[in-house]
Design a protein that fits this description.
Elements (H helix, E strand, L loop, with lengths): L42 E4 L3 H13 L4 E4 L2 H6 L2 H4 L2 E5 L1 E2 L2 E2 H11 L4 E6 L4 H9 L4 E4 L4 H22 L9 E4 L2 E4 L4 E4 L9 H11 L6 E2 H9 L7 H17 L7 E4 L3 E4 L4
Parallel strand pairs: 1-2, 1-3, 3-6, 6-7
Antiparallel strand pairs: 4-5, 8-9, 9-10, 11-13, 12-13
Helix pairs in contact: 1-6, 7-8, 7-9
Length: 276
């Protein structure tokens, strides 16, 4: 295997997304020299098929991103990669468990990271579950290397935006807004009632509700909603959006917020009304 595919984290000189970087020491590869400080993006690959893993590694390396690969859950959890990477490519079917368990762990330990689910299964339930657990994208096997590179770039752009927002120490007036009896904090990513009751939303539920609330009184189709939430490359099932909307309405109702704030426009999509 080429040397650049076996190096540990942060060992490859980068050029992604126009971000500035400095190189640092790679003792594990046997090199000496200056210490290197890296501020660019890194990728973790969790895939049990060695041939597929090699294809992914080469695709990622061709974009200049350093990567670290694992074939099992145990190998991934044994180190600190879970907290260090900016993007994770996660296979769902693994020899020692489910990739969905990894999604839960990533969102718990590294909430700002991007996640792309890789799977040979095309069942809608897998797609929906991946979204519910915080995946940014879902790529079905077999896939083209060019498509995978594009998906990784798109996810890393969104990840960079999220991390930039999280670095601010204080909220600005533009980050907190109220509409239809709800208070949104875009920087902290929470929604509360005006009585300070927090609405327990999943990652996808929050993103969908925010997409609607920031376009009040505007009808959005299901595709437009998912474009705002996951980008134009995401191929959503209609029932994915419908199920998310249904769960949001239920949670708003339990918090004594009228679920009528989100109205269904038959054969078109949904609209968030600004009426209080």
């Amino acid at each position: 295997m080429p040397p650049h595919l076996t190096q540990p984290f942060f060992s490859t000189r980068l050029r992604p997304l126009g971000l500035e970087y400095q190189t640092f020491r790679n003792d594990d590869a046997g090199h000496t020299g200056e210490s290197k400080l890296l501020t660019s993006s890194s990728v973790v690959i969790l895939e049990d098929d060695a041939d597929v893993r090699t294809v992914i590694e080469r695709a990622i390396a061709s974009e200049g991103y350093p990567s670290k690969s694992f074939g099992t859950l145990g190998a991934l959890f044994a180190g600190d990669a879970l907290t260090r990477a900016d993007c994770f490519l996660v296979d769902i079917t693994l020899p020692d468990g489910s990739g969905f368990d990894v999604l839960r762990a990533i969102r718990s330990k590294n909430p700002g990271a991007g996640i792309i689910v890789l799977s040979g299964r095309t069942d809608e339930i897998d797609t929906v579950l991946g979204l519910e657990l915080g995946a940014d994208d879902y790529v079905c096997k077999p896939f083209r290397a060019r498509e995978l590179r594009a998906r990784v770039k798109a996810v890393l752009r969104r990840t960079a935006d999220r991390k930039f927002a999280q670095k601010a120490a204080q909220d600005s007036p533009a980050d907190v807004f109220e509409i239809s009896g709800l208070r949104f904090n875009r920087r902290a990513r929470w929604v509360r009632t005006l009585q300070e009751v927090k609405i327990p939303l999943t990652t996808l539920e929050y993103d969908v509700l925010l997409a609607l609330a920031t376009q009040p009184d505007t009808v959005l189709s299901r595709d437009q909603i998912m474009d705002r939430v996951r980008g134009p490359d995401w191929a959503a099932f209609d029932r994915t959006v419908d199920g998310v909307i249904s769960r949001i309405r239920s949670k708003l109702e339990k918090a004594d917020v009228s679920h009528g704030a989100i109205k269904t426009i038959r054969n078109v999509g949904y609209v968030f009304t600004s009426e209080t």
